[in-house]
Amino acid sequence: MPSDVRKLSRRIDQGDPGEALEAIVAIRRRLDILEAGQVDAALQDR
Prior knowledge:
mainly alpha
């Protein structure tokens, strides 16, 4: 996953606003998935 973030950062640095927006959406989706996984794990610990 970190390599994907680096690739997206490079695309943003190249200045394409469409690609920058796509990168932001992709990162937010991954964060949402991670947060959902943490919530699931917390519920299973109970």
